[in-house]
Amino acid sequence: MDIIVAKDVRKKFKLKHGQQVKNNGIISNEIDALGGFDLNIKKGEFLVLVGPSGSGKSVFLDIVGGLSAPTSGVVYLDNKPVDAPSEKTGYVFQQYALFPWRTALSNIEFGLESRGVVKEERIKIARELLSLFGLSDFEDRYPYQLSGGMQQRVAIARALATKPEVLLMDEPFAALDAQTREILQNELIRIWEGTDTTVIFVTHSIDEAVFLADRVAVVTARPGKIKEIIEIDLPRPRNGDIRSSSEFAANRHKVWGALKAEVNKAQQEWKLAPGFTD
Amino acid sequence: MIKKIFKRLGLKDKLLGLIVPFLLLIIWQGAVTKHLFSELLVVPPLTLLNTLIELAKSGDLSSNILASLNRVLIGFLIGASGGFILGIAMGLSPIINRTLSPLVKALQQVPEFAWMPVIILLFGIDEFAKNIFIAIGAFYPMLFNTYLGVSGVPDKYHELAQVYQYKSHRYLAKVILPSALPSIITGIRLSLGLSWVFVVGAEFFGTEAGVGFMMISGRQLFQIDVVMAGLVVIGTIGFLLNYVLQLLEKKLSGGRVAFDGGIA
Ligand SMILES: Nc1ncnc2c1ncn2[C@@H]1O[C@H](COP(=O)(O)OP(=O)(O)OP(=O)(O)O)[C@@H](O)[C@H]1O
Ligand SMILES: [Mg+2]
């Protein structure tokens, strides 16, 4: 069963007065971010989006999350068109994830507070999640007292606290160092494999995509649409060891094969843009 | 936390800041004892201290300080709450901001004391007129700092609020205000500081109590020591108000600097 269905989703942004951009060679002051995005996502699936920078991945996530409306086309969540943020959705951003005036525990409570969950229940849920991420000793710390990896664990815990059916993750690990990043990938997959949450995860790392995904959807250079969907045929449950297997390398190769041309195309476009210096 | 703040403020720097005033006091005392100035015109520090003690003993000092503080408080509350509310409205709504900011900027150019004749015409010289005079001074710093804090709430905070369906008062109380708090505290500090500066000015125009009144009547009676005691009191209280609010400001923004551009 498909929990999310995106049908011919298009998104244009009006540029500021005097700014111009080329859409398929035609000069315009509107930018085509998404150009007919079609995607069906199965319930409980881990879907990873990869694509060149500026290909509209974040824009698509915002539309699914109800933060932004498509110019045309529809996204259905559980058969209902998304027109506002839904209680079924959680969101993890790359940056500014946590509120500096709240402790780790209280940050995790944030999403539950507006939904009328009573204090004791909120604390219980938040503590369970902290312990799931090995952060029980840090519940009263403020974000600046936590490492980047810990902060992002808390941000993920906050998103999981409301038990979302759909979890949107926009490059959540991009700012972390390579080791912390692998550790968090391992933790995320361990925790996710015990839930039936549907995840849409955006990354620029092919390794990350292959390690996490059931399917990897490759997005074209702007205007973004789905170029190809690659099934990752690695067994679950997965753990870190799988990264060095030959099956992993084979999947990696497939994803890169589909992505390479788009990345080159996007780069070409930047080079042609006025003012671009290499 | 508090310890950290003390460390950051640097006790050493504070001692450095005391050296010059202390030297000045010694030179001042010495100059008067050596009869370089008339003791009638320049009161030596020790006499001044004595006067302060006398004023304190008689209860004059505390009653005048209380009268001034009371005036400051009322004027500050009127002006700062006006600035606070308008600052939030202008920070949240670009339309309100564009509608009102030219007017606000123009009025801000009017020097505080230029309001005096207007206020006297409209309200006379009674207590309420003084409160309004102080309120005008308190209004602007609160307005600008609240506006800066509210309009500077990071986009991601707005998005998180949307994702979790925070609306109206809850949105304001749980996202906007906490995010803008350091800036709002700065507004309170500057606004209160200006209120204290203007109260003394207001008291030069007819009143029967307050630190400004104490100085005016001291001048009329040619009690130069009382006039100077007033200066010391004004400076000290202003300094303390600022100091306490600065501590609060540092405490509340503690750690936040690390976030700009960081992960959290
Ligand atoms: N609010 C906006 N106004 C104007 N243009 C926008 C806006 N948001 C996005 N865009 C444009 O839409 C395109 C897609 O942006 P988007 O952020 O979705 O890219 P992305 O695929 O997430 O890139 P990255 O991998 O670098 O995060 C970009 O060209 C971007 O400049
Ligand atoms: Mg993006």
Describe the structure.
The complex is a heterodimer of chains A (278) and B (264). With 278 residues, chain A is of the alpha/beta class. Chain A is built from seven helices and twelve strands. In chain A, the strands form three sheets. Chain A has a six-stranded mixed sheet with strand order 8-9-10-5-11-12, sandwiched between helices. A four-stranded antiparallel sheet of chain A has the order 4-1-6-7, covered by helices on one side. Chain A has a two-stranded antiparallel ribbon with strand order 2-3. The longest helix of chain A is centred in the C-terminal third of the chain and has 27 residues, at 246-272. Chain B has 264 residues and is mainly alpha-helical. Chain B is built from eleven helices and no strands. Chain B folds into two domains: 1-42, no CATH class; 43-253, MetI-like fold (Orthogonal Bundle). Chain B has helices at 2-9, 11-33, 45-58, 60-92, 94-108, 115-123, 127-151, 155-163, 168-203, 211-220, 224-252. In chain B, 80% of the residues lie in helices and 0% in strands. Chain A binds chain B through residues 65-67, 85, 87, 89-91, 93-102, 110-111, 113-115, 142-146, 148, 151-152, 155, 162, 175-176, and chain B through 154-157, 159-160, 162-166, 170, 174-175, 178-179, 181, 254-256, 258-259, 261-264.
